[in-house]
Amino acid sequence: MRMLCASTLIGEFFVIGFAGLVAMKDDTLSTSTVWTVCGIAMVLTILLCGMITRPGGVQLGWALQIALIASGFVVPVMFFLGAVFAVLWWASVHYGRRIDEIKARWAANAAAAEGSAAPDAA
Asked: How far is CA 5 from CA 55, 77, 92, in A?
């Protein structure tokens, strides 16, 4: 799960940066405000890459997805991109957990096969 979620978050890192460039064209927003908000969101994506498997990591990821969709009020195309990344986030969490379960099952089967195939040392 960690690899899939981290890949989604890295993609979001770049999208947030590009959205910041688009938001700078809005005359009602100051450059410092745009880059403070975008900078915090970009740092959060990087920190979340390491926090995915910790308690609350996935929930923070969902909060980031909601914020990304809400950023569409400033940069309208972010409604679409935020929704796309929310679906990617769901897929990363859902299928990542399934992959982790399958890997654990394979490891348990391999350990059981190795234990039963070991010769007696008598």
From this structure: 15, 23, 5
